[in-house]
Amino acid sequence: MKKIIKRYKFVFIIIIFNLIMLLLKPDIGMNSIETTAVNLKEMLCIMPPVFLLIGILDVWVERETMIKIMGNNSGIVGIVIAFLLGSIAAGPVYVAFPFAGVLLKKGTKFSNVIIFLGAWSATKIPISLFEASVLGWKFMLIRYALDIPVLLLIAFITDKVVSKKEKDMIYEKAKNLD
């Protein structure tokens, strides 16, 4: 029982928070519950296909292949693949984290995982096309010209700042994601 409570403590906190809000401020509490329900429904629609794709990636792509194309010695090829994987993605950014876990599990270079996450959140092609249609191509291209170098800089700085011990711990946790 303690293990279940520990694992789902944030869910329980949200439920308790919503109930308290419902008692103290019924209109705000009801709005909070409705928002939580909408978000839960959205997540339940998105996550099953995501987990299917993650399962396929985990089973079909050999660890050695992933290390070769995105591992420590992948160079510019690994960077480009990480960037493209993040940019062609669909779905909210919370969907990227299970993918990042599988990439880590498969031996992807730490900075390439950071690039993947950054590209997912900042350079998704479907969102960029919408952005260009609303704000203009010039705005979108200027944003890309600023975002991409900063994204790469953040990835490389993070890779240098995070110690080998911390990276090893992160990779170990990723191996145990099953």
From TrEMBL:
Spell out the GO cellular component terms annotated for this protein, sorted alphabetically and separated by semicolons. Answer: plasma membrane
Listed transmembrane segments = 7-24, 44-61, 73-97, 141-158
Q: Which UniProt keywords apply?
A: Cell membrane, Membrane, Transmembrane, Transmembrane helix
Where is this chain's protein located in or outside the cell? Answer: Cell membrane
The primary location reported for this protein is: membrane
How does the record say this protein sits in the membrane? Answer: Multi-pass membrane protein
Which family does the similarity line name? Answer: Belongs to the UPF0718 family.
Q: What is this protein called?
A: Permease
Q: Which organism is it from?
A: Anaerosacchariphilus polymeriproducens
